[in-house]
Design a protein that fits this description.
- The complex is a heterodimer of chains A (505) and B (172).
- By secondary structure, chain A is an alpha+beta fold.
- Chain A contains 18 helices and 22 strands.
- In chain A, helix 1 links the parallel strand 1 (2-5) and strand 2.
- In chain A, helix 4 (87-95) runs antiparallel to helix 5 and helix 16 packs across helix 17 (457-474).
- Chain A is globular, with a radius of gyration of 24 Å.
- Chain A starts with a strand and ends in a 5-residue tail after the last helix.
- With 172 residues, chain B is mainly β.
- Chain B contains one helix and 16 strands.
- The longest helix of chain B is centred in the middle third of the chain and has 12 residues, at 83-94.
- The N and C termini of chain B lie far apart (38 Å).
- The relative contact order of chain B is 0.14.
- The chains are: A alpha+beta (505), B mainly beta (172).
């Protein structure tokens, strides 16, 4: 048996590991930018699928299907992103006689439409954010919705996802412009200009339920994840369990999610997303018909392997999990490490990773798609790796996160590690007193560098002194001898000993 | 040697001297004695002699005089300028967008980094001027095309000498 991974980066590596654990062979696909990427080096076989731009490689279904045919793969795993929620691709995989590792294409199609999935949730009895079930006909219809329900409202592209094609409107005079922008964004990103409207919930938390369902009528929910730390609607930190969900709410959310699973005839692993308002009321948001980026926090807390489970479900096996056995144990937190510069407005930071030191020790897991020397291209999503920590309770997990963040070193490019190091020391983060707009508001109020400065004034002075020492050495005026032997090892072995004469030989 | 170190909110007067294996660093009049031991080109160990406080430093130069420094798990950016560069940078702030690179003080032209017809970016180093026993990078205040280079390497120039001229804005 052989599985083709229609993806790259850390998730391709994650899937290869699951296949190894199951004894299944692996076929990687790669663009011209990825010949030496870890997923390609790791897989049993690797097939080129085109030039670096995703449109011409990882998003080009024909090339991937051809690679599957040539390699003799029997299963196709789409990962997340790229073609993972593309119903036509799933259909084409099945039409070629291959096994699609995911839910049936018709479920992907329904859940891919925000309005269709809302209708399905209504059938399943899930509470919906007050809003329309059909796309907006025109601006007049939007205005009458606002007259009835008030402001603020959120305009969403019907085909949208991943935080794109959404516009919040807080003032009545902005409605017309926002309507036009949402339509043009929907057309540009998703090829569908239809938009619908719903109330915008203030200070809501993002809570999502992991589910798994087999072909034999069994389904379970596997706890929830808290994903309220977001930047511009993109999750950056996720936790399991949610610090604000008790066992009663967990069961209610879980059973609501399962009602949607049954109503949609869902099979495979999947995620039902909810918003939780400050008053405790929760609302269906959408269902993601794939593996989530943040699946490891659930794995750590429930002691399961979601990717192995997903593959065995695709092979028609029965669920290996029983609801009564799924009891959360401890607490896990994940940080998404992006090649972005948090001190410069999160600008992309492509380049070569010149030095990489990963954290380790008790409770630390790193799912990474890069190694030292990796080139981070501009062509793809800038996520490099996920740092996941587990502890017997949230407090311990936070301390382990702080430890792991201090050990993690990436040089050559800038990363969002800088952001997480500031976050982990914040009282609001430690107390889990946040909501989906929290991080954007924090960054708007106080720059990250100011936050570092306020949190640790001693480090600021030390960094200033280090910069001045380094500049003096660079200027060549104060003892070029410190750098006399140039590169790391030669210098360490010779220069330092000669210089200081106090290091063991 | 003396530096003006500019951060996100303030500028500091810093002097660095070598004293045996230590550095004596004076920041706005306050003296600190430290070990600064480079472990390779980007990693160093910084240790305060008086109290033993130790920091793992990772630093890299982002631009000619701009350093990004992580100390422990905190990250900062500093522009480390010679006093002359600091004056030039102040002048740039006052007359942003000027089309000429002018010597802010008397000195010797060490190096000219451009030729007539070159396209330059804002902040690009145009001329290296040695003055006060320091090499000072004189940067372009705006993007544009070099119209003429009026001095040669080795020339001694007075304060106010026009070194390089850019083409007028609408040609650049």
């Amino acid at each position: 048996m052989k599985l083709l991974i229609a993806n790259r980066g850390e998730i391709a590596v994650r899937i290869i590991r699951a296949c190894r654990d199951l004894g299944i062979g692996t076929v990687a696909v790669y663009s011209e930018a990825d010949r030496l990427s870890p997923h390609v080096l790791m897989a049993d076989e690797a097939m080129p699928i085109g030039p670096a731009p995703a449109r011409e490689s990882y998003l080009r279904a024909e090339g991937i299907l051809e690679a599957a045919k040539i390699s003799g793969a029997t299963l196709v795993h789409p990962g997340y992103g790229f073609l993972a929620e593309n119903a036509e691709f799933a259909e084409a995989v099945e039409a070629q006689g291959l096994i699609w590792v995911g839910p049936p294409p018709e479920v992907i199609r329904v859940m891919g439409s925000k309005t269709e999935s809302r209708k399905l949730a209504v059938q399943a009895g899930a509470p919906l954010i007050p809003g329309m079930l059909e796309p907006l006909e025109d601006l007049a219809e939007l205005q009458s919705f606002v007259d009835e329900h008030g402001l603020p409202v959120l305009l969403k592209a019907v085909a949208g996802g991943g935080g794109k094609g959404m516009r919040a409107v807080h003032k009545k005079e902005d409605l017309g412009a926002a309507f036009d922008r949402a339509r043009s964004e929907g057309a540009a990103y998703f090829g569908d200009e239809r938009v619908y409207v719903e109330r915008l919930l203030d200070k809501a938390r993002h809570i999502e339920v992991q589910v798994a369902a087999d072909n034999h009528g069994s389904a379970v929910y596997i706890g929830e994840r808290e994903c309220s730390i977001q930047r511009r609607h993109q999750k950056v930190v996720e936790e399991c369990p949610s610090p604000v969900v008790g066992s009663e709410l967990r069961q209610t959310l879980g059973e609501t999610a399962l009602a949607i699973v049954r109503a949609s005839n869902y099979r495979s692993v999947g995620t039902v997303e909810f918003l939780l308002a400050p008053d405790g009321q929760f609302y269906f948001l959408e269902m993601n018909t794939r593996l989530q980026v943040e699946h490891p926090v659930t794995e750590e807390v429930f002691g399961i392997d979601l990717v192995c489970e997903q593959i065995s479900l695709a092979l028609g096996e029965r669920l290996s999990l029983r609801q009564e056995d799924l009891v959360p144990r401890g607490h896990a937190i994940e940080c998404r490490i992006y090649a972005e510069d948090p001190l410069r407005g999160f600008a992309p930071s492509p380049g070569v990773i010149q030095h990489l030191q990963r954290p380790s020790g008790p409770g630390v897991r790193v799912d990474s798609g890069v190694v030292e020397g990796s080139v981070v291209p501009l062509d793809y999503d800038p996520m490099l790796a996920k740092l996941v920590v587990w502890g017997p309770d949230r407090q311990t997990a936070l301390l382990r996160l702080k430890r792991a963040l201090s050990e993690y070193q990436v040089l050559g490019i800038c990363t969002t590690l800088t952001l997480f190091r500031a976050l982990v020391d914040m009282e609001v983060f430690q107390k889990a007193d946040f909501h989906t707009a929290f991080l954007d508001q924090l960054l708007a109020e106080e720059g990250l560098e100011e936050l570092h400065r306020r949190q640790d004034p001693e480090a600021e002075e030390a960094s200033l002194i280090a910069a001045a020492c380094l500049a003096s050495l660079d200027a060549g005026r104060l003892g070029n001898d410190l750098f006399a032997h140039g590169e790391c090892n030669g210098w360490w072995n010779e220069g330092l000993r000669q210089q200081h004469g106090r290091f063991p030989r | 040697m003396k530096w003006i170190v500019k951060g996100a909110t303030a500028a500091h007067e810093v002097e660095v001297e070598r004293e045996g294996e230590h550095f004596v660093v004076t920041v706005d009049g306050v003296e600190r004695v430290v070990d600064y031991i480079p472990l390779d080109r980007t990693i160093a160990s910084l240790r305060y002699i008086n109290n033993g406080h130790s920091f793992h430093v990772t630093a890299h130069r982002e631009a000619k005089r701009s350093y990004r420094v992580a100390v422990g798990d905190r990250e900062f950016t500093w522009d480390v300028l010679t006093p002359v560069e600091a004056v030039a940078s102040e002048a740039r702030g006052a007359s942003a967008g000027a089309a000429r690179i002018i010597a802010p003080i008397p000195g010797k032209v060490v190096k000219i980094n451009v030729s007539p017809g070159d396209d330059v970016e804002q902040g690009q180093s145009i001329v290296v001027l040695e003055a006060m026993k320091m090499e000072n990078e004189l940067e372009s205040e705006r993007a544009g095309r070099v119209a003429s280079v009026l001095v040669s390497a080795g020339d001694t120039v007075d304060a106010g000498t026009v070194l390089v001229e850019l083409e007028a804005e609408d040609h650049g």
